[in-house]
Every structure is written in structure tokens, then in C-alpha cells.
Specification:
By secondary structure, the chain is of the alpha+beta class. It folds into two domains: 13-163, ph1033 like domains (ph1033 like fold, Roll), CATH 3.10.590; 182-380, no CATH class. Helix content is 29%, strand content 22%. Strands 1, 2, 3, 4, 5, 6, 7 and 8 form an eight-stranded mixed beta sheet that branches. Helix 6 packs across helix 12 (347-357). 39% of the residues are buried.
Length: 381
């Protein structure tokens, strides 16, 4: 299916977002028309014959292909995509097409793309992937084309979390304006090591699931309701899924707006008592720490009066990094600074408690977390 990009005047490069579903629908329809939302018509009209579209899978943060514009933009509502009309359209030809498994992880390009450079927060690169079409710098475009072409010529298959292939970015209107709810794989791409571990990373993957399991076990033993991140009930721990081992809450309290609820439901583990959330846990093992912190900070920003004990759970050797990141100015500027509500909980401390408490956990209260964890505030050190 690959063709060489035609020589000629310098093309413009445009980001073109796809879900796994819409990418397959595009190819099934002949790979001749790429569509965008009606609100993007003005931008689509700026595309010219010869321009190149950089195709990016949102669920798994990978570049999956390159398209070339071969005609003038037009509007049409003929069904191509099942989830939306995408009537702002442009005729294209496929230059390179990969599968989800052979697509190029964006984090493999972090040293080559400007979207990763000079950021106040290393996690803010994801803002460059929030909508399409978006014009990209020529150097970045050329880099993506080069990597995608190489991936097609010499494919490398990487495991894909099938659940994440169904991801579709969602935005909600709140009092703060339009909020795009952070998804693990989209906020930082940092869950990729957990879902497709390298040979040396398999243990880290197990650690994340292990700690989730221990938190669910301890919370359940205390007589609390427990919630695991929306995508994780079927994770395997000790030979069974979480949903088989624990009586997981089927829904969260209804006292939050929809945007807040979407953030909360993606938190790794929650302990609840009735409609009250007694503790929220983000586990950071192979991740860069930012995915959990940003979810926590978004929650605090949107609900500044919310009184929920928040915990970043990580290996003891990452203690300093966690504390440093919690104290970033970005998080300190919140109405309720994150450092005041977010504590560090070490893997070993949690494991020791789970082992020693055993059957006595039913007599314990969530307050025990204050003894197991430590403040991230240097003033309390």
C-alpha cells in the first residue's frame, strides 16, 4: 500500500487523529477520504494538494500512517465513520499504513520532536495531540514520516492493550470551561511500559497490579467499598481478576459533575464509605509520575473544597522524585496546593502492613494510612 511521497514544493504537515476503530473504517472505505469535525472546516480549507497528514492513534499514542492530500477540501456527510460524521473532508492517498501493533510509539520520538522540548512540565507534550487537523512544523513532520516509513519497511510488533484501542477522547463543559479528561495513555503515554513491558520491565508491570490488589484487599478487609480504575476490573492478580476477588463498586457517588466523575473513575484505587471517598490512590511504578499527579491536580482544581486524602503510591527509591514533583510550582499554584493534600506511600510500607495486619485489618480504620505514609511538604519533614 506504500507509495513514495511525490517530489515538488515543500508540503505542509498536519496531525490527523484516529481511533483504532476510525482508522480501520477509513481503510475499509478505500483510504481515499479523511474527515474532520464540522467545526474544523476553516482549518481543513487551508490544506493543499501535496500536504501530508500524520496519522496518530489516540488510544495507544502511536503514529500509524501517513496520507497525502490529492484534491481540494470538500464537505460531505456520506457515512464513513460510525462514531461521527466528520463532514469536513479532504481527498487523500495512503503513503504509509501500519497496524496498531507495528505503529510507532510517540515516546520513541521524544528526542526528535519539538513538542517534547522546552516544556515547563515534561507531561505537557500531550497538548499537541488534543485535536486535528493541526499544522506541524516541517522538521517534526519529516521526522514522523521517516520513522513511519522505516516501521513499514522493517516492522516491529509491540503488544497492545486491546482495551485501550477503544479509547476515544472526551471533553466536557464545566464551570472552568471545556475540560478534556485525562486518560492514562493519552496524558503521558507513560502506561505503555506497563501494557507492553520490555524484558526488564515485566516485574514493574506485576508491581502495579500487585499494589492495586493489596489496596483493594486492605480496603475490603476494613469493611469499606472499593473501586478500581474503570479499565482495570479484569486485571489478573493471584490467578483471578479483581472483579472475581472483590466486591467492586459498580458506580461512583453521584455528587460530582460529569467531568469530575470521569477523572475520579480513572484513579487506580478508591476506598469509599457510603457516598464518601475515604482515600484515593495513584500507583506509579514504571510511569513518569505525571499521569497520576495530573489526575490528582485536575481533581483538586475542579473541586477545590473536596476533602479526600490523596496518595501517590510508589517504590521507596522513587520517594524523592515523587516529593519533588508534588512540590512543582504548577501544583503549588492551585487554590488548594497539591502538597497539602497528597502524601507519599511506599510499596514496601504497604506490603509490610498487608502482611502483618492480616486478619486484624477488619479492626483498622483508613486513618492508619497517615502512619504508613508521609507528607510531601518539606516544611513537615
Amino acid at each position: 500500500m506504500a507509495e513514495d511521497v511525490s517530489a515538488g514544493s515543500q508540503p505542509a504537515y498536519w496531525l490527523d487523529l484516529f481511533t483504532h476503530k476510525s482508522w480501520n473504517e477509513f481503510l475499509a472505505a478505500g483510504g481515499a477520504v479523511s474527515g474532520f469535525s464540522a467545526g474544523r472546516w476553516t482549518t481543513v480549507q487551508k490544506m493543499n494538494v501535496g500536504d501530508l497528514l500524520l496519522c496518530y492513534l489516540t488510544g495507544i499514542s502511536r503514529f500509524v500512517g501517513v496520507l497525502q492530500v490529492v484534491g481540494e477540501p470538500f464537505t460531505d456527510k456520506t457515512v464513513i465513520y460510525s462514531d461521527a460524521e466528520f463532514p469536513s473532508r479532504v481527498p487523500v492517498r495512503v503513503v504509509h499504513a501500519l497496524t496498531a501493533e507495528t505503529a510507532v510509539p510517540v515516546l520513541d520520538l521524544r528526542n526528535d520532536l519539538s513538542v517534547f522540548q522546552n516544556l515547563s512540565n515534561p507531561n505537557f507534550w500531550s497538548g499537541a495531540f488534543r485535536g486535528s487537523p493541526a499544522r506541524w512544523k516541517a522538521d517534526d513532520g519529516e521526522t514522523v514520516v521517516r520513522f513511519v516509513a522505516e516501521a513499514q519497511a522493517n516492522p516491529i510488533e509491540r503488544a497492545v492493550d486491546k482495551g485501550k484501542l477503544a479509547h476515544r477522547p472526551r471533553a466536557f463543559r464545566t464551570a472552568l470551561g471545556e475540560v478534556t479528561v485525562p486518560e492514562d495513555e493519552e496524558m503521558a503515554g507513560t502506561l505503555l511500559p506497563e501494557t507492553e513491558p520490555l524484558a526488564t520491565g515485566a516485574e514493574a508491570t506485576t508491581s502495579h497490579t500487585e499494589i492495586q490488589g493489596l489496596l483493594l484487599q486492605i480496603g475490603s478487609a476494613m469493611g469499606l467499598d472499593v473501586w478500581v480504575a474503570r479499565n482495570d476490573p479484569n486485571r489478573i492478580w493471584r490467578g483471578k481478576t479483581f472483579s472475581e476477588q472483590f466486591k467492586l463498586r459498580s458506580e461512583l457517588p453521584h455528587n460530582f459533575d460529569s467531568a469530575t466523575s470521569k477523572i475520579i473513575e480513572m484513579i487506580d484505587v478508591l476506598w469509599l464509605e457510603g457516598n464518601a471517598i475515604r482515600a484515593a490512590f495513584e500507583i506509579e511504578s514504571t510511569t513518569s509520575i505525571y499521569s497520576g499527579l495530573l489526575r490528582m491536580s485536575d481533581l483538586v482544581a475542579m473541586q477545590p473544597n473536596l476533602q479526600i486524602p490523596l496518595f501517590i503510591v510508589a517504590p521507596e527509591e522513587r520517594r524523592s522524585k515523587v516529593i519533588n514533583e508534588v512540590n512543582r510550582p504548577t501544583f503549588a499554584a492551585l487554590k488548594q496546593p497539591l502538597v497539602k493534600v497528597c502524601r507519599f506511600l511506599g510499596f514496601d510500607a504497604l506490603r509490610s502492613y498487608a502482611k502483618e495486619a492480616g486478619q486484624w485489618s477488619k479492626f483498622m480504620k483508613p486513618d492508619v494510612l497517615q502512619e504508613l505514609s508521609e507528607s510531601c511538604d518539606p516544611a513537615e519533614a
